[in-house]
Amino acid sequence: MPRLLTILLTIFVVSAPLSAGAKVTIDITQGNVDPMPIAVPDFLGADDATSELRHDLTKVLMNDLDRSGLFKVIDQRAYIMGDDMGVNVRPTFPNWRLINAQVLIVGEVVELDDGRIQVSTRIWDIYADEQIGAVAFKTPADNWRRAAHKVADFAYKALTGESGYFDTRIVFVHETGPKEKRIKRLMIMDQDGANPVPLTDGLNYQALTPRFSPTQQQITYMALFDNRPGQVYLFNIETGEQEQLGTFRGMTFAPRFSPDGRQVLLSVERHGNSDVFKMDLATRRLTRLTDHPAIDVSPSMSPDGRRISFTSDRGGSQQIYVMNADGSKQKRITFGEGRYQTPVWSPRGDLIAFTRQYRGRFYIGVIRPDGTGERLLTESYLEEGPTWAPNGRVLMFYRQTPSRRNGKGGGASLWSVDLTGRNVRLVRTPGDASDPAWSPLLP
Amino acid sequence: MKTLMKFAGIAASLVLLSACTTTGPDVDATAGAGTDVASGPTGPVPGSQADLEESAGHRVFFAFNEYTLTPQAQAVLSRQAAWLQEYPETRIKLAGNCDERGTREYNFALGARRAEAARAYLVSLGVDAARITTVSYGKERPLDPRSTEDAWSLNRNSTTTISAAGA
């Protein structure tokens, strides 16, 4: 089992005055039709040895910003670069106004004596002629990708006021082989698809529906066996240690951590009927939350820990219900046509993402916890399993295409979409992928 | 290879025979494939998986998003129950399966419902509950990989396999 190293980034603010109030801001709640034009020259450096690293780091940063849909990185070939460019030099603002850049990100990479690099960045408001923010990181040189994501998160926050989501990872189900005999194993990768690493070997069980702990480098998932009911497992992705969560005669499935990471909500099946339970991880005490002859599945807790959404077919078809964290006051919140499933509470608390089946198509949508304001964001032949970016502004999910007439094909892939529904992007994965789970921001 | 259902010699199936049909999803295109029994003029080894599949049928099918047993499904299970009376040491596993037109998590629950529906029916016909285990594969083990109505019909099933053969 590969051990994933945690590499600490030393963060400090560059000793320079921050502007009192930047004029350039993006309201990401409004759904920007036109992304903000932004200039990101290759990070500077005195040392030729770092030139490739600087170029690659800048590419990762540009890719992060571009894929957010909020920014449009202007082609570097259009830049008018003065000789005096530097991270501690005021830019020649007219040169950037000429190409309609609203924001300029200038960075620098310096090799330190201890083998680490220092990555310094300044963000400039081109129209107000002032600095928006500055930040620097010291990190081992081979950790340059994370440094790039940290810069992207800093820029995202400086320009939107919201925390970013770029220095994060995704656990997902990697799929290989024909559909009727598919090998499904867990993999982890950076949010942008880099550094994929397998977590399970896919030999003795299929690994499905992984979910990240909001507080630790730990996941919970369901292992599907041939000869015994599928079971929920805990998996420490630092050590590779696994353990089955409890001992059950029936199937356990659809696990999800509580926001404090101390409990796992799950469904437990007994004699064919599935109900929602929660298990306290410290005491392993199991508490029943629903007791209904209908199917109750896919629990997800609100970030304040007070309520739980879940799917039930007690009303005749699958719909989303919300109850108190102790199981009381179960109330249906969706009433539209079709079937509503996999509710996932936003880390901001304001929305619940879901999968809706309607007239033969699948949709990813969001709805307020009181059942108002439903919006469908994407649609396809088959898509499901939304997971929230830690800032609650972007969703990732998976799509499956129909098989061809000979039964081949039918592959799955990961997609992301922001809350406007306009910015739908394929997420790069090594081969077929499903069931994404977004990590919290890395420390 | 299509395997036609055989009803011969099983009393319990007679009462439900009129409900049986040899067309539709009960005719399983894959039945008899991949078993551990040598084919030959003498037919499958009595008490084997192949024998179960030929004598009773090992798979029952469900309507979309449903877990209630159709009359055809009840007929197959009745034959399975009678077959299991002949081989009282044999234990079976019932696996509930779903088509791809649902979410993974819900389909695990639905598959469990389907396996349980088959289990409860067999028990009601006198099969000792201790001989039966159930699993749900949700939509993860489709028989037919195509994305067609026919494939989905086939993939909504409860499949009976022998988990421990009789002495």
Low-confidence stretches of chain B: 1-35
> How would you write the strand order of the largest sheet of chain B?
1-4-2-3
Tally of DSSP β-strands of chain A = 30
Large-scale geometry of chain A: elongated
Element-by-element helix/strand order of chain B: HHEHEHEHE
Shape, per Cα inertia axes of chain B: globular
How far do the termini of chain A sit from each other? 23 Å
Radius of gyration of chain A: 23 Å
- State the helix count of chain B: 5
Please characterize this protein's 3D structure.
Chain A is mainly β and about 450 residues long. Chain A is built from three helices and 30 strands. Chain A folds into two domains: about 35-160, TolB, N-terminal domain (Rossmann fold, 3-Layer(aba) Sandwich), CATH 3.40.50; about 170-440, 6 Propeller (Neuraminidase), CATH 2.120.10. Chain A has helices at about 50-65, 95, 145-160, and strands spanning about 10, 35-40, 70-75, 105-110, 115-125, 130-140, 170-175, 185-190, 195-200, 205-210, 220-225, 230-235, 240-245, 250-255, 265-270, 275-280, 285-290, 295-300, 305-310, 320-325, 330, 340-345, 350-360, 360-365, 375-380, 385-390, 395-400, 410-420, 425, 430-440. A six-stranded mixed beta sheet of chain A has the order 1-6-5-4-2-3, with helices on one face. Mean pLDDT of chain B is about 80; it is low at about 1-35. The interface between A and B is large, with 53 and 36 residues.
Q: Mind sketching the topology for me?
A:
The complex is a heterodimer of chains A (443) and B (167).
Chain A: E1 10-12, E2 36-39, H1 51-67, E3 71-73, H2 93-97, E4 103-111, E5 116-125, E6 130-140, H3 144-160, E7 169-176, E8 183-190, E9 197-198, E10 206-212, E11 218-224, E12 231-236, E13 242-244, E14 252-257, E15 263-270, E16 273-280, E17 286-288, E18 296-301, E19 307-312, E20 319-324, E21 331-332, E22 339-345, E23 352-358, E24 361-367, E25 375-380, E26 383-388, E27 394-400, E28 412-418, E29 424-427, E30 432-438
Parallel strand pairs in A: 2-3, 2-4
Antiparallel strand pairs in A: 1-6, 4-5, 5-6, 7-8, 7-30, 8-9, 10-11, 11-12, 12-13, 14-15, 15-16, 16-17, 18-19, 19-20, 20-21, 22-23, 23-24, 24-25, 26-27, 27-28, 28-29
Chain B: H1 11-14, H2 49-55, E1 59-61, H3 71-86, E2 91-97, H4 104-124, E3 132-138, H5 149-155, E4 157-164
Parallel strand pairs in B: 2-3
Antiparallel strand pairs in B: 1-4, 2-4
Helix pairs in contact in B: 3-4
